[in-house]
């Protein structure tokens, strides 16, 4: 019923219904070859790949006023093992080492993996080669991969580095897409998908789009439609539907990623894999003063994290996700990094640097002053620090079994930074096969419909997306490239 309504709506639309942004180059057309919906990493890779694989016309439609989505806001780390960059830097890694390491640290529990191991495995296999492909398109990487959780240095930052490299990557890809003749339409969003019938095996033949301002129009796609509209981190309705335990947790990242691509695909029968692992959504540890994520120092700098009660609640070195999970589980709204001047002096050139240069880190001459100013129970904080310092002296964290970055907190000045969990990437998403085709509830590919990136959910595990052997940007690249290539074949 819904499908028929869409088709009628489309036939009733006239060409005059189109009106374009300055970037648009398809004036007067109601048809394209490959239609890519969403202009982040996955969408750009799909559009470029479609062109490189012979698609005559490729149109990329983006809801926002510029391209980038979550990709441009990301930490800039392309996490993969077995690259030429690692080899040059003397890091002994491979697809196999990365895969085994990931499985061991929880990947085997992931539902995507259980459902179709080959879809997951392909990301590990193609990720390193696709890094070379990104370089061939003009994307620049730093030459020293960084360590995060995992047994090798696998974080390949877009140049110039952590948090600041993503605009370079997106701009390079956009430039390439424009050079190849991709039509880029901004301020226009996907509303629904158009199918050629309302039968079970209907093919997707286009989409109903809506310009900012509310005007709707149909765009037909001869070769296929690629959904690359990101996840639903900022869609509270969908967060509650798939992950009710996260109701009320704040969202981070692009406000435009509300899950419209998933909804549109589900409306024509697509299957969603709901991943509850690790709360089903990735959460950043965000500084409340700055609204910027500050997770990395947890695994690099000796510090403790306490709640309002002044109590530790987790082995901090397990990373931001483990800390966030515990906070959500225990319903702690806020937590605080606490560190002393020894840590700050010794680790000032690590990931701590940016926070001390650019963010408001509060400095106090005593822990009492710190507790009072931050609204933390001093009685408990004093006890927490005392026990922690005694444990450090004994070389054993008696409370949470922490073994890394153990250093006493005893040298003024003391520093505190208030943080909260904010969800930013959904692990649940559309089921795809190795060709990036979207599957229906019976596991059959929906003709003409492909998907890549966050819209397909994630290979999350242990420490979440990015905490292991691969990351969201790699998934977006690998399946974006495949989706474009496959659609171009039609
Ligand atoms: C703060 C932050 C830090 C991160 N750090 C890292 C990291 O270091 N490494 C890593 O690998 N991953 C990281 N991630 C995750 C990573 O950014 C994502 O996995 C990746 O960017 C997904 O790419 P995408 O193209 O699928 O989605 P996006 O980049 O979000 O692109 C989706 C696009 O679709 C558009 N859109 C949405 N709805 C519609 C619609 N209805 N019609 C048309 N367009 C629509 C959006 O505006 C957006 O431009 C981070 C994410 C965030 C938020």
UniProtKB/TrEMBL annotation:
Sequence ranges assigned to domain FAD-dependent oxidoreductase 2 FAD-binding in this UniProt record: 34-464
Keyword Flavoprotein belongs to the record: yes
Cofactor: FAD
Pfam families: FAD_binding_2 (PF00890)
Superkingdom of origin: Bacteria
Signal peptide: none
Segments crossing the lipid bilayer: none
GO molecular function: oxidoreductase activity
Keywords: FAD, Flavoprotein, Oxidoreductase
UniProt protein name: FAD-dependent oxidoreductase 2 FAD-binding domain-containing protein
Source species: Turicimonas muris
